[in-house]
Amino acid sequence: MMTQTRWIPSRRRRFRSLSEQEILALAISSEEDDGRIYRAYADGLRGDFPASASVFDAMADEEDNHRQLLIDLHRERFGDTIPLIRREHVSGYYERSPDWLMRPLSLEKTREVVEKMERDAERFYLAAAAQTSDASTRKLLGDLAHAEGNHQSMAVNLQTELLPDDVRAEEDDKAEKQFLLTYVQPGLAGLMDGSISTLAPIFAAAFATGRTWETFLIGLSASVGAGISMGFTEAAHDDGVLSGRGSPIKRGFSSGIMTLIGGLGHTLPYLIPDFKIATTVAIAIVFVELWLITWIQNKYMETPWGRAMFQVLLGGSLVFAAGILIGHA
């Protein structure tokens, strides 16, 4: 049975339909939101990056000043009652992501988001100024557009004052180490486990049965099982509080997903019906996986190429040989 659908008008207003009072109200609520977001970023970074937190505190103070200027103008022109109009009420208006969606806050990501916030605000004030005719309103909106455009320069000046080069370098180094501890190390361990530990069961099954579908099922089960095991083990054995390794959930997902990928790499070729072709492709992918592990160890863990290649190739070769021998037994 088909149900009749009725057209539901949009609950959002077009920006061009806003009155000058509504534009001021929208600007006030936007400045309030931006100031609140800057302070939330500052609070989220204060524990690990206090100097950067001071920069965001100062930028929040600047947004509060803009808000007060807008409120004063609204009171002068329209009185004390400010209409309730927010970003979500205006069609096509830029959005803001709440800070809790980004936690734990990444220092570099936060800086990128703030730069985009400033560009969005500048475009809004330019459009708002073009839509107003009152001289005082147009002047204030134009001044705020100029101020938002200069926010990047202000941020640079604040960083120079509150975040000298040596402090910023120290914070960037700390952020990079946190990334390594939370994502790279667990992910590398998972990729190594998934790529190497599944070699024996997959190739043992391949050479024992000579059948691609059965080999694929065994490889899939080994990969999924290893991924779940590695993910839960990583998340459960360290909550990250004392070790500083970050969120156990993020580490668990990183380890589990990379373990699964490592095992599936040389499992998926066995979807090819021809056994010889499937095995040839699987063996080629194994070498790619081992090279990728070596490259990650060298790039992120600063392991010398020679030692990384020796460790990975030796371990992989032994497990691979074990699988072939068992499969021919």
Description of the molecule:
- It is a single chain.
- This protein has a two-stranded parallel sheet with strand order 1-2.
- It has two domains: 151 residues, Ferritin (Up-down Bundle); 160 residues, no CATH class.
- It is 74% helix and 1% strand.
- Helix 7 packs antiparallel against helix 8.
- It is mainly alpha-helical and 329 residues long.
Short overview:
74% of the residues lie in helices and 1% in strands. By secondary structure, the chain is an all-alpha fold.
In DSSP terms (H or I, runs of 4 or more residues), the helix count works out at 11
The string of secondary-structure elements, in order, is EHHEHHHHHHHHH
β content, as a range? under 5%
Major sheet: size, sense and barrel closure?
2 strands, parallel
Counting DSSP E segments of at least 2 residues, the number of strands comes to: 2
Order of strands, main sheet, comes to: 1-2
Tally the structural domains: 2
Spatial shape: elongated
Class based on secondary structure composition and strand pairing: mainly alpha
Keywords:
11 helices; 2 strands; 329 residues; Ferritin; mainly alpha; two-stranded parallel sheet; disordered N terminus; 2 domains
Fold topology:
Blueprint: E1 13-14, H1 20-46, H2 50-78, E2 90-91, H3 107-130, H4 135-149, H5 151-162, H6 165-197, H7 199-209, H8 212-237, H9 248-265, H10 275-300, H11 305-328
Parallel strand pairs: 1-2
Helix pairs in contact: 1-2, 1-3, 2-4, 2-5, 3-4, 6-8, 6-9, 6-10, 6-11, 7-8, 7-11, 8-9, 10-11
